[in-house]
Amino acid sequence: MSQPEPSDPRAEARTAWTRAILRDPGAIPVRASMDAGFRSYWRVAGADGSRIVMDSPPDKEDVRPWLRIRDVLEAGGVRVPQVLARDVDAGFLLLEDLGADTYLHVIDATNADALFDAAASQLLKLQAIAPPADLPAYDEALLARELRLFDEWFCGTHLGLSLQCAEVDVLDHAYRVLVDAALAQPQVLVHRDFMPRNLMPINSGPATDGPAVLDFQDAVRGPIAYDALSLFKDAFLSWPEDRVDAWLDRYHARAVAAGLPVPALARFRRDADLIGVQRHLKVIGIFARLHHRDGKPKYLADVPRFFGYLDQALPKYPELAGLHGFIEQRVKPAMAQRAGGDRA
Asked: Which of 66, 115, 117, 219 is the most buried (most CB within 10 A)?
């Protein structure tokens, strides 16, 4: 005799809330997507069309920061998901359904110029918003903590490297360069994950309506080049370097025209490279942590993409020669050895 499926109290609560809010006792939320964190999204069909239920378990991921930044962005003219109903204490939101496809699903070599231009329009609006006074700063402590994810989770936990004192000194020096460069940039509102997976094309309404911006709850006040670099050097999609350079130049020209505090182009390109190195190292560490701590191994498949980005940036900067050498002489051989062991 087969055993009954174990009950899932969270799923039961989600279904009950959805049915009550839609006044539809037969409504069934069907998984639409899931974040790298604890939030999940569920599509539900109703009499008035499709809706999305955001499930953000309050003991794991408070929905209030998401709602707060959503309101800040909307007030600044940024296209964000509309909230149709909420139960903040339970961690449930009913949102408009923006469709199943993000930029990541629809972008290709032929439409990338137009889609990135539309994305830059949203980014320029976002960066023009005065950061709330109590918004966290992308300060030295946060920048350094993120960089240490690379040595702790990728080099240590994932590759099993035990760093020598001289290697620790090399990383300390490189991290000092990267942190100082980030802090020296003009500071604006920073999304922190402004990339194709978090942009939704809007297929109805005025052309200026989209794309809609998602996953903004970790916004901070920080370096102006961060989000533009994240957009063009994506975690899940790579572009030829000459196209990325052209997109960065066009973003810069539009930012100047919009009155944003970008530096001269040569300085901006350096800023983008260096904050990019910081982000690439951080994301490599996060992807290793998602695998080893959170049981989400799929992100590791994109780690080589970030080493490709590092290969493009590091040789340009003599002050990062030590980091470049450490990656070439210690990290990449250890990656190859681990890959060989995984295949064995």
From this structure: 219
- For residue 336, what are the CA distances in angstroms to 325, 332, 339, 342? 16, 6, 5, 10
Sequence-separated contacts (24+) of 81-89 with Cβ below 8 Å: 81/52, 81/212, 81/214, 84/51, 85/21, 87/17, 88/63, 88/64, 89/58
Indicate the DSSP class of residue 61.
S
pLDDT-flagged residues of the chain (< 70)? 1-7, 34-37, 203-209, 341-344
Q: How many CA atoms lie within 13 A of 70 on its CB side?
A: 14
C-alpha distances out from residue 14 to 55, 92, 96, Å: 7, 7, 17
pTM: 0.91
- For the segment(s) 26-96, the CATH number from 3.40.50.150, 3.30.200.20, 3.40.50.300, 3.90.25.10 is 3.30.200.20
Q: Please, which residues bridge with residue 338 across strands?
A: none
Residues 6 or more apart whose Cβ sits within 8 Å of residue 270: 181
Secondary structure (DSSP) of 143-170 = HHHHHHHIIIIIIIIIT-----HHHHHH
172 in Cβ contact with 212 (< 8 Å)? no
**Tokens describing residue 151:** 């040595």
For the domain made up of 108-343, the CATH class stated in words is: alpha beta
Instruction: Report the distance separating Cα 323 and Cα 334, nearest Å.
Output: 15
How confident is the model over 276-332, as pLDDT tens digits? Answer: 999 999 999 999 999 999 999 999 999 999 999 999 999 999 999 999 999 999 999
